[in-house]
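The methods section describes the discrete structure representation at length, but only in general terms. An entry of this sort, consisting of the sequence and the corresponding backbone structure tokens, reads as follows.
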Amino acid sequence: MADAQGWRRKFGVMGPSTNTIVQPDFDAMRPFGVTNHYSRIFTPDAGALSNESFRAGIQVIGDNVLDAVRSVCTSRPDYLVMGMSAITFFGGIKGADAFIQSVEAVSGLSISIGSHATAAALRAYGGVRRIAILSPYWPVMNDAVRGYFDEQGFTTVRDIALQCRSWTGIAEVTTAQCREALRRLDGDDVDALVQVGTNLSMVRLAAAAELWLGKPVVAINTATYWHALRANGITDKVAGFGRLLEEF
């Protein structure tokens, strides 16, 4: 028997308990007949993040992921979606693959994660080799993001780490701040711009920026949800979130 509302697919979504952006973002992109069921990864809201404490904070979140997986699996989802990106970049491609394997071993389900989804999105656009990266992170995390994309065959020309001082503070970054950062990142030497950090509100700004920059601007929440839909054979085109969901 099919679920009354998620008759096409039920997605189990795991995200940090401090994250207030990814859940409404995913719901805004949800086609009819697909439902999202959010499971919060317990995350203490560190109030004074620094380059030194950021990595330790990510480890705490990582340690709690599988509890959130077990919890959401009680809703009997068809597929899982990771609503946090940082943990999926550590260790490069092997680290991302190992994360997927650990989740699949517990759940028995396939999963879309931000790192692999964003790489797939860049390839879907075609012709992208040189990228610029915007994150709410600290430099230690941007190093890991650059390393991952290097392994995937992309060259990071430049990057900006906004160095948000708390996990909840990421969601308080304004559209104006993100727009200014995109302008600083762009240049003739960049084929595409990439935003990582699922608690940074960027899905609609990225779509608008594609129009005035004339190149791909990939928001990680858009890429991750796009990847989950396409991995499940759902090819609906969703307007308002950029070329990725409208064309590919």
Remarks:
- Residues 8 and 33 are 5 Å apart (CA to CA).
- The domain at 9-115+222-247 is CATH 3.40.50.12500 (Rossmann fold).
